[in-house]
Amino acid sequence: MNSENTTIYDIASEVGVSIATVSRVLRGETNVSPATREKVQQAIDRRNYRPSSIARWLTSKTTHSLGIILPKLLNPHYAMIFTGAQEEARRLGYTMSLFPWASLDTDAYNPATMLIERRLDGLIVCVEYLPPDHDELVHEALRTLRRFMPVVLIGCVPPWYDFPAVANNNAAMMRSIVAYLTAMGHEKIAFIGGVQEDKDPHRRDIGYEEGLQDARLPYTASYRVYGKGTPEAGKAALEEMLGSLKRDYWPTAIIALNDLVAMGCLETARKHGISVPGQMSVIGCDDLFCAPYLFPSLTSVNTHQQQTGARAVQLLISGEQRRESVEWELVERASCAPFNSEKGES
Amino acid sequence: MNSENTTIYDIASEVGVSIATVSRVLRGETNVSPATREKVQQAIDRRNYRPSSIARWLTSKTTHSLGIILPKLLNPHYAMIFTGAQEEARRLGYTMSLFPWASLDTDAYNPATMLIERRLDGLIVCVEYLPPDHDELVHEALRTLRRFMPVVLIGCVPPWYDFPAVANNNAAMMRSIVAYLTAMGHEKIAFIGGVQEDKDPHRRDIGYEEGLQDARLPYTASYRVYGKGTPEAGKAALEEMLGSLKRDYWPTAIIALNDLVAMGCLETARKHGISVPGQMSVIGCDDLFCAPYLFPSLTSVNTHQQQTGARAVQLLISGEQRRESVEWELVERASCAPFNSEKGES
DNA sequence: ATGTATAATGTAAGCGCTTCCATTCAGATC
DNA sequence: GATCTGAATGGAAGCGCTTACATTATACAT
To answer: Which of B167, B194, B217 is the last residue of a domain?
Structure first.
């Protein structure tokens, strides 16, 4: 392909100048006479010549290309992060490629090798809810990688990862969600989702427990169900919880790990004839595009994922070695309402 | 960065062999004595050496990197296509980078220049519902691009685009959806969404009209509302339709351009107290992950987007110049039901 | 002992750019 | 008219690999 494989030599000889001059025109340097510039430019246009960035990179030792590693793009949460990162990268003149998690922890080939060989100018890694058995592997891979390129982390970054990062403090966020619910009079508040053995102290369920303490509410093991962050998991988890509890003890508010889990919870509630928010409030997290269109529309927390992605790119390029966090805000919709003990069962 | 900027020369001199020998070890060639191979490999491991693909590319004239251009990743439909393409690319040893539409039609810089300079081995472009005023621009950009790299198209590809493509025949699909609804007794069937002036004969609304003809139903202009493919647009469009029609003439079935539009329609129906599917059936398209969790769960059409993306990559790499289409299948859920003329208004 | 095939390794010329340094040539200065 | 200056341009050495070809060493046949 690229049959018109024109090089800088072709242009130079066509015009009758040296390649150095063509290079100068190409990069808009000023020390070229207007007449020469004009002739060269015409030849470039005539031949449809585009300089090879490959060759350029070899000289300049920089590729202006970044990488990002995400668990999966099918979850809109990650798609938003990716979009934010990609757009910011482009704005700054960089290209963004997506690499799957396998690049890091399960590649038969030496992990991360492909990333290094590509001579990326930087890498963003979204570490979220790492299964405990992956933690050490991933951490090791990251340490290797950073010897070759700047690495910025996104997500729920364990404090013992000494990397620049854009990490929302999920714990603080959850804590305030609990406060939001207790202020509404809820006392039986459940939390659904998340990895059980995750060691990260900032994870969402830690905040849940802190929130309960703030409100002097007891932590009840049956109100805490672990599971993957999918709709199916949320559905099954709430199902299980309701099944194991007498009706009087059913929670009046559910905090879901994220909106996907919340979707599953809404489904289960519907199936059991529990009215939301009449008998049970449900709150999600991430504020996915579909949250307003669920029934009832889902109260959630906007975690500004696009901004997170963009900020990570900025840190990557500026080289700042900081760990920062992004604002979040509660988006009130119909799925949460004050607890009303008078209300009868429907 | 990359402080350990080791090159093939470093390894060669460390071991005391020529760079050619190191290169042979690197690429696993057999004509190296076991002893030498061992020594070289040890030096490589010791120095943590990773050959630069940049230099390799310069020689080999191939970058093993592909590009994909999508309207926007925030729409899960495109995220699925991207995921399918990305995974297949990786499986085949290629990298996949995302480029925004702007690369093609609005770049201040010469469109597509960045793509060409990067010397991609191929490009996938998702052309869907091109606004008519963009069609010529995009077509022109694509023609330029294909002179430099193989291009495969995805989506609703107009027949006058002479490119290899993976295009579902949206018209045929829609036609059968209409058949599905008429078989259920619906006669007042509306279609919501899409670009009005799109010239493509395979677009979804053409199939809608064909379907009506099949069933000997009249085409009613008021049942056809144009609009963007978003939930908001769907909401507003149905709103407008209901507002302009006497209650007796309200459609009993809505075909939405896609699931996003369908989400908006469900919302409007809910707001007007129209029960779905009791008084009005709604069918979407694309079968997004949230379709089962809407209320009522949304009947939709699975268009196998991941497979579409994967197939496009295969065409790209194999170089086959064919235009093919991917299967689709109706996924029946709760939002469509037979029309029952006896049923009273709620 | 000589010749020949085979395996192992080295040499060097690219690949298409950037960039430092050298050269040329006006025009200005004395 | 000789010298100097600075703008415009060219020469050539990389950048880090691959690879065709050349060279050397080894083994075996004659």
So the answer is: B167
DSSP tag of A227: B
Q: Which of 121-180 (B) contact A at CB < 8 A?
A: 144, 147-150
B3, part of any domain: no
Please state, in angstroms and rounded to a whole number, the distance separating the CA atoms of residues A194 and A201.
13
Predicted local distance difference test score (pLDDT) of residue A110? 60
The reply to whether the CB atom of residue A25 sits less than 7 A from any atom in nucleic acid chain C is: no
Choose one of A135, A167, A199: the last residue of a domain. Answer: A167
**Cβ–Cβ contact A33 with B under 8 A:** no
Taking the CA of residue B32 and the C1' sugar atom of nucleotide C6, their distance in angstroms comes to 13
Please give the average per-residue pLDDT across A308-328, as a whole number: 96
Does A150 share its domain with A209?
Answer: no
A109 with A16, same domain: the answer is no
CA A14 from centroid of its chain's CA atoms: 50
B272 and B198 within one domain: yes
Say if residue A344's pLDDT is above 70.
no
Is the whole-model pTM more than 0.70? yes
* Residue A94 domain-assigned (yes or no): yes
B194: β partners = B227
Q: Is B275 part of a structural domain of the chain?
A: yes
Of B76, B96, B293, which has the smallest distance from its Cβ to A263's Cβ?
B293
- Confirm or reject contact between B318 and chain A (CB < 8 A): no
A4 or A216, greater pLDDT: A216
Give which of B5, B69, B74 to mutate to test A binding, by max A Cβ within 10 Å: B74
Give the pLDDT confidence score for residue A105 in this predicted structure: 65
CATH code of the domain covering residue B27: 1.10.260.40
pLDDT band at B168 (very low <50, low <70, confident <90, very high): confident
Residues within 8 A of A (CB atoms), B 207-236 only:
231
Q: Kindly report the CATH number assigned to the domain that includes residue B131.
A: 3.40.50.2300
Q: What is the mean pLDDT of chain A?
A: 91
The per-residue pLDDT for B194 is: 82
User: Are A181 and A265 contained in the same domain?
Assistant: yes
Same domain, A132 and A223: no
Q: Do residues B53 and B70 both lie within one domain?
A: no
Taking one residue from A and the other from B, the number of pairs with CB-CB distance under 8 angstroms is: 145
B70 bridge partner residues: B100
Q: Which range, A44-48, A156-160, B29-33, B342-346, has the best average confidence (pLDDT)?
A: A44-48
**Which residue's structure tokens are 């950073």?**
A146
Q: Specify if B338 maps to a domain.
A: no
Confidence of residue A111 (pLDDT cuts 50, 70, 90): low
Instruction: State how far the Cα of B95 lies from the Cα of B92, in Å rounded to an integer.
Output: 9
Token digits for B169? 């025949």
Q: Which of A2, A3, A54 is the closest to B58 by Cβ?
A: A54
Helix residue ranges, H only, chain A? 8-15, 19-26, 34-47, 53-60, 76-91, 102-105, 113-117, 132-146, 170-183, 204-214, 231-244, 259-271, 305-318
Token code pair at residue B43: 């030096």
pLDDT at B176 over 90: yes
**Residues of B with Cβ-Cβ distance to A63 under 8 angstroms:** 54
Which amino acid is residue A16, in one-letter code? G
The total domain count for chain B is 3
**Cα separation of A78 and A35, whole Å?**
51
Q: Are residues B191 and B266 in the same domain?
A: yes
Domain holding B147, by residue range, is 65-167
Do B153 and B204 belong to one domain?
no
For residue B278, the tally of other CB atoms under 10 A from its CB is 14
Nucleic strand C contacts from chain A, 32-91, CB < 7 Å: 49, 51-52, 54-56, 58-60
